[in-house]
Amino acid sequence: MIKAALFDLDGTLLNRDESVKTFVDKQYERLDKWLSHVPKDKYIARFIELDNQGYVWKDAVYQQLVDDFNITGITWEELLQDYISQFKNCCIPFPNLINMLGKLRSSNLVLGMITNGKGQFQMDNIRALGIENYFETILISEWEGMKKPDPQIFNKALDKLNVSSAEAIFIGDNPEKDVKAAQNAGMKGIWKRDDLGSDTVADFKVDDLEEIPLIIRELNNNSLSDLASKVLK
């Protein structure tokens, strides 16, 4: 029986690509006094390129932007601080996020989240989405001193939820750090499809969050059927 569902954040619950585009557009408008000499589309495109889907922290991104576009009058540190303080105002969820979490909770599942990233920054984004209270445990790599794909962070989450790995399912968008890592920890892995991992080996693949409660219900129905068959024998 599946008793717990654990989630990644960026690219799984948070539509990070759209959130980043929205943030950079607003940052350009907010700081146009220092950025207007750069065409907006070039500033946005270069930020997204340097960001590398979030795998490059923004200190390096802004240092390179300042150098590339000869930005003066504002430092890369000030641009970074603007990112840290303002990104939470641009968080865009994937469709059906709240509805999906509500269905899982109403099915008596316990919910957890494991996300790599900066502690307060990620928590600000979680709160901006309005989902913090759906989760019994939230582990953020900076605060935990370990990160995915380290199996220890998965095991810690399972311990906090008081479930075994066989009783849990993990949903994420990264084929290696989410799906494979969760499977290596003994969990079933659901891949939230993106454009980068068409050959991902997952137990299930979804395009929409609303598919997740259906998958878990089917798994649990099959488990009950198997149990009934064994009893009847």
Report what the structure shows:
- It comes from Virgibacillus subterraneus.
- Its cofactor is Mg(2+).
- GO terms for molecular function: hydrolase activity.
- It holds the Pfam family HAD_2.
- The protein is an alpha/beta fold and 233 residues long.
- It is 52% helix and 12% strand.
- The chain has eleven helices and six strands.
- The protein has a six-stranded parallel β-sheet, sandwiched between helices.
- Strand 4, helix 10 and strand 5 form a beta-alpha-beta unit.
- It is elongated and about 60 Å long.
- It starts with a strand and ends with a helix.
- The C terminus is likely disordered.
Count helical runs: 11
Rounded mean pLDDT score? 94
The level of helicity is: 40-55%
In this structure, how is the largest beta sheet organized?
6 strands, parallel
User: In which order are the strands of the major sheet placed?
Assistant: 3-2-1-4-5-6
Give a short synopsis of this structure:
Keywords: Hydrolase, Magnesium, Metal-binding. This is Hydrolase of the HAD superfamily. By secondary structure, the chain is of the alpha/beta class.
What does the secondary structure layout of this molecule look like, with pairings?
Elements: E1 4-7, H1 16-30, H2 32-35, H3 40-51, H4 58-68, H5 76-86, H6 97-106, E2 110-115, H7 119-129, E3 137-140, H8 141-144, H9 151-161, E4 168-172, H10 175-184, E5 188-192, E6 204-206, H11 211-232
Parallel strand pairs: 1-2, 1-4, 2-3, 4-5, 5-6
Helix pairs in contact: 1-3, 3-4, 4-5
For the structure shown, list the relevant keywords.
single chain; 233 residues; alpha/beta; six-stranded parallel beta sheet; 11 helices; 52% helix; 12% strand; elongated; disordered C terminus
